[in-house]
Amino acid sequence: MLRELSARHRGWALAAPFRISRGVKYSAEVVEIEIGEGDCRGRAESVPYARYGETIESVLDQIESARQAIADGASRAQLAELLPAGAARNALDCALWDLEAQRAGTSVWSTLRLAPPQVLTTALTVSLDTPERMGEAAARIASARLVKVKVDASAPAAQIEAVRRAAPDARLIVDPNESWNIALLRDMQPSLAALRVALVEQPLPAADDDALEGFASAVPICADESCHVAADLPRLQGRYQAVNIKLDKTGGLTEALALRTAARAGGFRIMVGCMICSSLGIAPAFLVARGAEFVDLDGPLWLQADHADGVRSRNGALHPPAPGFWGEGRDANTGNAVASAR
C-alpha cells in the first residue's frame, strides 16, 4: 500500500520574545508533516534553523524530494541515505517511528525496549537581556532545579551573577551561543567557578573548536553547534566534555539514539536539548533524554498556546504528552492508546 505524505509550515506565537546572542524570536516557525498508510497516520515536527543554512522553504523542498521514496515504503535506514542530517530528515524519521508504532499496535518505546516516557527535570531558560531584566526573569523561576542562562560577550559575568542572585539554589547552564572567543572564555573561568555554573554550552564558534584543544576549564564545556551526529565525536575529544543532542541536528530519533550511545561510550556527558517548538517537536526527545545529566526541553513552554494534549510543566518538572499523542498505536474501535501504561 502506497503511503501519503503531507507537509506544511506552521507558526506558533511566543508568550515573550526569546533572545540569544544571534538574534530574537517572536514565534516558532516549524514544519509539520504527516505520513499516512491505510488508517494509520504518523506525525512529526521539525524546526528549520538559519544557523545551519535552513529555511522553511528549503526544508519543505527536501521533504518533497523524498516524497516518492516515502510513498514507495522507504525505511528509516534508507531515509538516512536520501537526506543529510537536519530538520527535513528529523521530521520524516520521527513520523516514520510514529507510523510504525501505529501499524504494529505498539509503542516506539516498547520497540526500543524502554520504559514509557517519564517526567523529566528540564532547564527553564532565561533569555538574553540586561542583567537587571535577566535577574527579574530568573526570580520568576527561582524554584526551578535547573536554569539555562543565555549570554553574549557584552557583560556575561554580570548576566550570570544577576541570575545566580535570583536563583541561588538552581544548577546553572550558561549558553553563549558561539559568541565568545578563547580569551573571554579564559577570563570567565573565575566567575564561572564562583557562580557555581554546572555547564558552559558552546562558548566559541564551531569553526574555532581547535582553540579548546587541551584547554583546562573549571567548568565542563558542552558541544552544541559543533556536534550533530555520532561521526562528529572523534574530533570533539580533548575539546569538549559533554554533547547536546537535538533531534533537528541529528536528523531524527534514529541518529539521536545512535549519538547518545556513541557519546556515552566515548566518555562524554549527555545533554538533550531542543529548538523553540511545540510538544510535537519534543515528544520523541523524551526517549533520548532518559538518564541524561542535563535536559533542556522547555521549547514548548515559550509558546502562547501548545497542543491541548501536549507537555505539561510545573517548576521545571516536564510531564510527557498525553497517551496517544505520539509514538503509540491506537485501538481501532475505541481510539485509545494501546501501548503500555505510563
Automatic annotation (TrEMBL):
- Map out region (Disordered) in residue numbers: 322-342
Which regions are flagged for Polar residues bias? 333-342
Superkingdom per UniProt: Bacteria
InterPro entries assigned to the protein according to its UniProt record, in alphabetical order: DgoD-like, Dipeptide_epimerase, Enolase-like_C_sf, Enolase-like_N, Enolase_C-like, Mandel_Rmase/mucon_lact_enz_CS, Mandelate_racemase_C, Mandelate_racemase_N_dom
What are the transmembrane regions?
none
* Key word Translocase present: no
Coiled-coil stretches, from where to where? none
Q: Any idea where the Mandelate racemase/muconate lactonizing enzyme C-terminal domain is?
A: 131-222
Q: Does the keyword Magnesium apply?
A: yes
Which EC number(s) are documented for this chain? 5.1.1.-
Q: Which cofactor does it need?
A: Mg(2+)
Q: List the keywords (alphabetical).
A: Isomerase, Magnesium, Metal-binding
Cofactor note (record)? Binds 1 Mg(2+) ion per subunit.
The record's section on Pfam families has: MR_MLE_C, MR_MLE_N
Query: Which protein family is it in?
Result: Belongs to the mandelate racemase/muconate lactonizing enzyme family.
State the name under which the record lists this protein: Dipeptide epimerase
Q: Please give the organism.
A: Luteimonas notoginsengisoli
